[in-house]
Amino acid sequence: MEKSFPALQMGQLVCGRGSIAFLKTLQKQRVAVLYDSRVFNERARADLCALLGGDVRFIADILGEPTLDDIRTAVNALGDFAPELFVAIGGGSVMDVTKAVWLLYEHPQLDLADAFKPFQLPAPAGKADIAAVPTTSGTGSETTCCAVFTNTQTQEKQLMLGFEIVPKYAILDPNFTDTLPGLVAAHTGMDALSHAMEAAVCKAASPLVISIALGATLDLLENLPLSVNEGEGRKAYAREQCHYAATMAGVAINNCSAGLVHALDQPGPYFGLPHGLVCGLLLPYTTAFHSPHPVYAQMAGRLGFAGSEAQRCAQLVDYLWAFQTKVGVAHSFKELGVDEAAFMDRLAAFAAVVDTSMAARLSPRQPTQVEAAEILRAAYYGERPAAPAKA
Ligand SMILES: [Fe+2]
User: Fold this and answer.
1) How far is the CA of 191 from the centre of ligand 1 (A)?
2) Whether residue 343 sits in one domain with residue 249
3) What is the CATH number of the domain that holds 49?
4) Who contacts 94 (Cβ-Cβ below 8 Å, separation ≥6)?
5) Same domain, 123 and 217
6) Residue 138 Cα, ligand 1 centroid: separation in angstroms?
7) From the CA of 262, how far away is ligand 1's center (Å)?
């Protein structure tokens, strides 16, 4: 049998202030745009029409967490329009709906239920491409093979998974991030940091993934506090760096897997907490659980920490704890006002996911349900995690 070698899968990534102008170089005459009107207002939409010329239609304004109904509504709005390009301008929600609408446009006969069979999507028919223009810096959806939807009838999350839905182009124009509220920048940035740190230690990470994930981790640690707290001048630069790093973190997880933070993000949807906030809250706890780890030690070394592998990992966990305070992310669910009895009542159910979650399985050490429950319990009360620090 021939030996196989790891390869890095991603779309074409374009970056720079004003890089939305790249869309014009694609020379598409019929363009369907899905967007979020809170960041892509009427004036911006008029500018896009002027830039592209041709027949540009705005088919869906996606404002909340994406649902299966959003897919159906956007497909209906598309009608018999035959775009050559789908453009998604917004956060993860807009990009996720665009992936699904594109899939059903490519394959009109595909049953929506079949679209949710993991990694069993049909090959593209070649009618149109997707260009994603993220306006937040966190989900990485512009580079990933995943789209998440809520089924409003059952309130369950449904995942669409397949490399076919990775956008062909990701256009990283930081001009869209300048007006992001600090809190959104903090939460989405912590989501990106979790992607980067989890990919870096994922069991399936190749050397290329580790290199990208380490770089993204350090860029986010350096720039996120400035991006959240600074005045306009340095903030704009920091936001730009975070924007690029968040996408590279997305490339990293797309080429291996997210990890334990993402497996344990069960209280997020259950209590209506932002995904990035829950990721950021859990990160020191899971980092301590996986320590010592040689890649964490490498990360800590690049941050300037010295000592044995275990000592450097312990310092990294302390650093993350202080980092939460710097960017305004809570240490505990209790601090967020989550009801204690309701949380403890669900604790076992939240923890049970680690037996079946791919993210838990591919993390450096798959916890038992008891260990996972202990991580969540400590995170509820804000019991400061500590990595074993023996030399
Ligand atoms: Fe995430």
Assistant:
1) 5
2) yes
3) 3.40.50.1970
4) 34, 35, 36, 62, 88
5) no
6) 7
7) 6
Q: Ligand 1 centroid vs 7 CA: distance in angstroms? A: 23
Measured in degrees and rounded to the nearest 5, phi and psi for residue 60 equal -155, 135
Q: How large is the C-alpha radius of gyration of the chain?
A: 21
Quick check: helix, strand or coil at residue 311?
helix
- Whether the Cβ atoms of residue 22 and residue 169 lie closer than 8 Å to each other: yes
End-to-end CA distance of the chain: 43
Cis bond leading into 292, ω under 30°?
A: yes
Supply 175's token pair. 């001009």
Q: Which two tokens stand for residue 288?
A: 């301590």
What total number of domains does the chain contain?
2
How does DSSP assign 112-146, residue by residue?
Answer: TTGGGSTT-PPPP-SS-EEEEEESSSS--GGG-SE
| Boundary (domain end) residue, out of 150, 177, 204 | 177
Q: CA–CA separation, 237 vs 239, rounded Å?
A: 5
Per-residue pLDDT tens digits of the chain, which is 391 residues long: 678 898 999 999 999 999 999 999 999 999 999 999 999 999 999 999 999 999 999 999 999 889 999 999 999 999 999 999 999 999 999 999 999 999 999 999 999 999 999 999 999 999 999 999 999 999 999 999 999 998 888 777 889 999 999 999 999 999 999 989 999 999 999 999 999 999 999 999 999 999 999 999 999 999 999 999 877 678 999 999 999 999 999 999 999 999 999 999 999 988 989 999 999 999 999 999 999 999 999 999 999 999 999 999 999 999 999 999 999 999 999 999 999 999 999 999 999 999 999 999 999 999 999 999 999 999 999 999 987 765 4
Residues with a beta carbon under 5 angstroms from ion ligand 1: 191
Tell me the pTM.
Answer: 0.95
Cα(254) to centroid of ligand 1, in Å? 11
3-state secondary structure of 67: strand
Q: Which domain holds residue 286?
A: 182-381
SS3 62: coil
